Here is the input.
Amino acid sequence: MIMPMFYNYLNQTKPMKTVLSILVLFLVTNASAQVSGYKVKFGEEEKTKKRILVEFLGVIDDKLYYFKEKFTFGKGLQPYILMVNRDDLSIQKEIEVLDGNASISRIAFINDQILVFINDTDRKSGITSYYFQTITKDLEYSKMKVDIASFQREKKLFSSSGNFEFIESQDQEYFAVFYNLPYERNEPEKFAAAIFDKDLKKINQKDYQLQETDRDIELLNKHLSDNGDLFLSARQVTERGMLGGAKDFDQLFFQVMPDGSLIKNKFKLPGKRIVDYTFISNEKNQLICAGLYGDEKGRGVLGSFYARLDVTTKEWVKESYKPFDSDFITDGWSNREKNKADRKKDKGKDPILEDYEIRNLVTLPDNSSILIAEQFYITTVTYTDQNGNIQTKDIYNYNHVIVVRVDAKGEILWNTKVQKEQASTNDGGYYSSYAFYPDDDALYIMFNDNLKNYTKGNVVGGETFKTSFTKGKKNVVSIVKIEYLRGDKKKAKLFSGKDIAMLVVPKAHFAAFDSKELYFYARSKKKEKIGVVKL
Here is the structure.
């Protein structure tokens, strides 16, 4: 059994909405092409099964490593790690990762070796063991096995036992394993964390317990600083409605201390409502929080924000905001949507942005930051088929991308929007969303697009035509370069679905900073290949 392991947003849930698990893969042909100033290279086609899980792991010198499920006769889908020659993208070697009833919860690249994190439950005893094994860069299993945790699964009304998560510091000097411990429902949540350095030496491992019950508080994101300190974000209910549902929240940060204690900090924007945010840390061990805000009592997104918290003094040492103006909000909207917004504005209702979620927050070498958010929502349609049966279908919408630029002092310099409209049915948005590469002076965003957006005027603005997910002449893979200085955008066509007889899966990608290359994956119904674009 293989557990999904890459993007957090692949398996999200939203209020009143459901998101299916997404399995990702990528492929292309053995050829090179110079298109619009970008050199694109493809590997050889391979046979594949539908929706196989793929994740790029990393590069060492002239080799690229990636994980994939592979169909094996008599066994079905099995997990493999492949080593690829970066020069011609040919497969040099592969190794089967796991054979048995255990499951892989994560595969990570640490200090030029591969760590396979395994979750194994003995059915007779009910004991769950979690450990990792190492594989060398030559794809040879070493004898090293590191035990992390082992505990008895309870048969009573206990919840959240297991759920192991892997977290790595931005400088890759440390990694942590976070996992839930068994606890009774409506009681304080229990969890544990084990922290290792890049040489696989365990720095600390402790059990922790929140003071609040799991009904009132929800743990969200985890972050490991470059100093090896672990932070957790959480949302605590402060007010409930008449029926007991959550009405208002406090946003919290917990610093996980080596002695087993938790230091709590509250995060609030005066006079504003936090729509969505994420956080990282800097070299001063300050938490950098960035995201989107709205009106304190209203709907929608009104602008972007940036804040820094000194975890030692518990003081917010920097806050900055940048509202979205009407032209920014309606950028990329259809004429019909703009006309509707104009009618509302005549009635005193300004246009707003809705359903945006934070995807990435990246710190650049000069200590400035880039924040990326994407519009995402699911619409469920109920209809009666020709036989009179009631059917439902879920439409996955991945639309415009917002990019926010913050300088090293914490001032928001500009907001810009990359226009795209992507809608697909009952597939979890398999071919939707984007791949990205943050360079020193520009950000690159790659996604599936519609050729009409070039022939009918929307290159970096104007009405946006919906992406085509067919391998015909309408599908095109676009790349947008966003200059950091002023947010200027330049859009180019890389190739079309017709050119490669496949579709790109943007969520499966890898940024190789040593060579300024963006690796990606593409597939058709029965074939796959990997590709790379030189930026």
About this structure: The two ends are 37 Å apart (CA to CA). Helices lie at 326-330, 335-346, 452-455, 497-500. The chain has four helices and 37 strands. The chain has a mean pLDDT of 85.
